[in-house]
Amino acid sequence: MRFVFITQNKAALPVGLLCDVMRVSRSGYYKWLKEKGGKRAISDEAAQEKIREVFAKSRQTYGRRRVTRRLRKMGIVISEQRVGRLMREAGLRAVGMFKFRATTNSKRSRPVAPNLLAREFQTSSLNTAWVSDITYVPTSQGWLYLCVILDLASRRIVGWSMRETMHAEMVTTAIREALVSRKPTPGLIFHSDRGVQYASAEVVRVLQSHEVRQSMSRKGDCWDNAVSESVFATIKKELVYRCKFADRETARRAIFEYVEVFYNRDRDHSALGYLPPEEFERKAA
Fold first, then answer.
1. What is the pLDDT of residue 39?
2. Residue 214: which of 197, 229, 235 has the closest Cα?
3. Among candidates 205, 146, 152, which has minimal Cα distance to 176?
4. Per-residue pLDDT tens over the stretch 75-101
5. How much is the pLDDT for 246?
6. Which residues contact 187 (CB under 8 A, 6 or more apart)?
7. Nearest alpha carbon to residue 127 among 160, 156, 169
8. How far apart are alpha carbons 93 and 223 in whole angstroms?
9. Are 58 and 267 in contact (CB under 8 A)?
10. Are the C-beta atoms of residues 67 and 87 closer than 8 Å to each other?
11. Contacts of 99 by beta carbon, 8 Å cutoff, 6+ apart
């Protein structure tokens, strides 16, 4: 168990220090790693094959850190540095980040909800705080607008909708979907920016009827809704900017598959200890 503990923590701390803490010799640890590790004593060739499998399953989105953690889940103990080297040798490089622009318009006269969330993005309880935003997806037919709602505790997309135009109805559709599937208790915080869609009477009415407390970012401060911005950056990087959608229906299908099959169920999330949102929720239940 001492050697296992060292292996599990050597990415964060020096092996020598861990050996001292666990009162074992460094030579003894490396001997165990080589002779008793089983899957741990994996050759570069075999490791690279497994790395290719993980990388392909991630849709070419995982860098060395996520690949390393997924390999360890599979029982393969390997250092992040070694994974990085093998990925470089194989020409495996995660897709890069792209910039995207905001879509919601806060220039309107409707009442502004207070900023109840106040950048408290870490919560341990499901269905206590949701965040939402709207972005655009380019297609050859024109824009397709996407609204998502994210549970802050699990980073799971709990409600979403897509429309050809940005109206309040797309927000209420996503909210109703989330409310039906999650059944939150009264007092849930629903946070967004100050866009006209979120300030609409229709959205306010739906939230109030379910005893949901509405929260809005401060004027011109994108950091107040940073988690929503982050999930859109991920969707754009890993899907939208890698595809050229011939029409809106093709984009709808691709986004549905990405959200429901990959993002919620299989994509490792650094804020969740490198667990997918669905697995995190199972363990939190």
1. 46
2. 197
3. 205
4. 888 888 999 999 898 888 887 644 444
5. 94
6. 128, 211, 213
7. 156
8. 29
9. yes
10. yes
11. none
Q: How confident is the model at residue 108 (pLDDT cuts 50, 70, 90)?
A: low
Question: Is residue 130 scored above 70 in pLDDT?
Answer: yes
- Fill in the amino acid letter for 58: S
Lookup: tokens for 138: 């380019």
Per DSSP, the residues of the chain read -HHHHHHHHTTTS-HHHHHHHHT--HHHHHHHHHHT-GGGS--HHHHHHHHHHHHHHTTT---HHHHHHHHHHTT----HHHHHHHHHHHT----------------S-SPPPP--STT----SSTTSEEEEEEEEEEETTEEEEEEEEEETTT--EEEEEEESS--HHHHHHHHHHHHHHH-PPTT-EEEE---TTTTSHHHHHHHHHTTPEEEEPPTT-GGGGHHHHHHHHHHHHHTGGG--BSSHHHHHHHHHHIIIIIITTT--BGGGTSB-HHHHHHHH-
For 173-210, write each residue's pLDDT tens digit. Answer: 999 999 999 999 999 999 999 889 999 999 999 999 99
